[in-house]
Backbone:
């Protein structure tokens, strides 16, 4: 399955180096192309190396590109980490961080906020709150549905809550003013990093860190959630409590991301899977690599989105175009493995 | 006594499967549990493991009441081997065995050298150390069963509970798994396993328990429990129990 089992550390280091190189390239690309040397000089300056860097390059790097690139790194890493956690916990490699309705809830919250107000902070707060409420609802429904496999009940109630919230989004779109309200709604639903500001990052980063901390602390014990519930309990694992903790952590990370970037799908589904092919399912190896690959993937996609054409492409569209065929390959390959 | 049941009743509220069951299993003893589908083997095992509450009576594990033990404390005393199943993720055999250490690793911790050593020792004891690096999804059913058994041994338990450990195995692996169970008992473990093949009660078990649909049960040595009369009453088919070279076998009549 995983070709690099012998060198999981090597895979992680290679991904880290590739990410650093990619970030430098992303800093140099844009409306004003900067020579890579200038970018490195600017970065060197920041590290106190005293290299001579042009003033204009420093401004472009720090004020225009760095916040957006940092947002791509943060969101890519967080969505991939949440996806890896959910896939392990639900014993299913085809689930994604928004499986419990966090994206649908965030979308409904944001769209309602746009409908009633144009305040950017209110929209983000509504998105974050909507995501948490949707997952809390899904969790409450699943907890009440006794007599089913708890993991399956959770996924099914997430899907049902998600489709209800999808109806709310559709209703608001139908009622929205097509000139003033519909464009920001559409922009938000497709996801974008164009509007990410350092202030947004300052809000999202602590929430992502708060969600990541329990996942990192539980990085070995997470493996046991991949077993049947009875099996894990017989090994001493408090399955229900652990699952609730992981749902909370992953939801917090996802909701914080969705609140500042809108809905960017596929990252959390595909990236953990790719990481698993490289280092296997062991979570303490999987988590760091998934985060590095997620950051690299979203940075590459976003850089493509802002440089490939004269208009900004929504990254959610690009991840979907890349994601759909990759998902189908996984689905078909997966079935072959079961036979 | 390692594993003891006193006047145990198990089942579900409103649907009791059996009552008044007394069991006492010391180190080195092996209990073979038989019974028809739906006869309550799985519920009995879940009750023994503390995953399902007993309706009446008491269960003791190493002399301590099971109900008073935390999940971790149970896991340090009782190893469970589920039926072989197709896993979703390709953990290596070593990683599977290591999971048996969960109850002995701090909640936020990771395995330390002694945990790796215990997992390795368990794999070696079962003769599958050479499979340690192989994905658990790609070894044979018999090897997977041994990997799950290694995981249970890595718990360093007093007793093992195995749910149909020989189901889905070919004939050679069935014999190998039963021999391993006998060997593990000889090293001081108490072993409980279930099966659909009454012959297996004669392959190293010291006790047998035959559950029936009606809630009655037969309990005793394999020779006392596995008789033509009991088997016919429970399974509804005519069977002869005879001996071949000193080992009893059950031969259905055609």
Residues:
């Amino acid at each position: 399955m995983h070709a690099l089992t012998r060198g999981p550390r090597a895979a992680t280091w290679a991904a880290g180096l590739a990410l650093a190189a990619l970030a430098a390239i992303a800093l140099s690309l844009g409306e004003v192309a900067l020579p890579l040397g200038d970018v490195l000089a600017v970065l060197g300056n920041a590290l106190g190396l005293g290299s001579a860097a042009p003033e204009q390059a420093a401004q472009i790097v720090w004020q225009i590109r760095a916040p957006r690139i940092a947002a791509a790194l943060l969101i890519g890493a967080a969505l991939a980490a949440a996806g890896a956690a959910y896939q392990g916990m639900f014993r299913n490699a085809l689930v994604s961080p928004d499986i419990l309705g966090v994206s649908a809830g965030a979308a409904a919250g944001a769209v309602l906020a746009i409908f009633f107000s144009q305040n950017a902070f209110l929209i983000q707060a509504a998105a974050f709150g909507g995501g948490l409420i949707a997952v809390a609802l899904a969790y409450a429904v699943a907890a009440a549905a006794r007599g089913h496999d708890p993991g399956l009940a959770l996924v099914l109630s997430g899907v049902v809550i998600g489709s209800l919230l999808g109806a709310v989004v559709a209703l608001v779109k139908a009622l929205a003013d097509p000139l003033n309200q519909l464009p920001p709604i559409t922009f938000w639903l497709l996801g974008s990093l164009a509007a990410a500001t350092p202030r947004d990052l300052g809000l999202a980063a602590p929430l992502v860190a708060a969600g990541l901390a329990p996942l990192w602390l539980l990085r070995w014990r997470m493996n046991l959630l991949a077993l049947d519930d009875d099996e894990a309990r017989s090994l001493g694992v408090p399955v229900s409590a652990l699952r609730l903790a992981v749902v909370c952590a992953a939801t917090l990370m996802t909701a914080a991301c969705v609140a500042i970037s809108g809905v960017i799908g596929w990252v959390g589904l595909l990236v953990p899977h790719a990481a698993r092919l490289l280092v296997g399912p062991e979570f303490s190896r999987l988590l760091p690599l998934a985060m590095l690959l997620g950051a690299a993937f979203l940075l590459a996609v976003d850089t493509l989105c802002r440089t490939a054409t004269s208009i900004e492409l929504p990254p959610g569209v690009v991840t979907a175009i890349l994601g759909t065929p990759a998902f189908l390959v996984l689905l078909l390959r997966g079935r072959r493995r079961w036979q | 006594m390692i594993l003891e049941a006193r006047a145990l009743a198990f089942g579900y509220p409103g649907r009791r499967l059996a009552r008044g069951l007394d069991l006492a299993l010391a180190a080195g003893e092996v209990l073979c549990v038989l019974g028809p589908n739906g006869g309550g083997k799985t519920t009995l095992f879940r009750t023994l493991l503390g995953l399902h509450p007993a309706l009446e009576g008491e269960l003791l594990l190493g002399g301590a009441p099971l109900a008073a033990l935390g999940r971790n404390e149970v896991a340090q005393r009782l190893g469970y081997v589920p039926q072989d199943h197709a896993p979703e993720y390709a953990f290596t055999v070593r990683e599977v065995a290591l999971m048996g250490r969960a109850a002995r690793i701090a909640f936020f911790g990771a395995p330390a050298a002694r945990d790796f050593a215990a997992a390795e020792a368990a794999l070696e004891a079962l003769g599958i150390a050479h499979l340690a690096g192989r994905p658990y999804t790609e070894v044979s059913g018999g090897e997977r069963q041994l990997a799950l058994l290694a995981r249970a041994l890595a718990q360093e338990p007093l007793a093992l509970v195995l749910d149909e450990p020989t189901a889905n195995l070919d004939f050679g692996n069935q014999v190998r798994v039963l021999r391993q169970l006998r060997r593990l008992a000889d090293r001081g473990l108490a072993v409980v396993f279930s099966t659909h093949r009454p012959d297996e009660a004669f392959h190293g078990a010291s006790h047998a328990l035959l559950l029936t649909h009606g809630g009655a049960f037969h309990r005793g040595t394999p020779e006392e429990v596995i008789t033509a009369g009991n088997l016919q009453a429970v399974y509804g088919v005519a069977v002869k129990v005879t001996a071949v070279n000193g080992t009893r076998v059950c031969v259905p009549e055609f």
Observations:
- Chain A has one domain: 75-338.
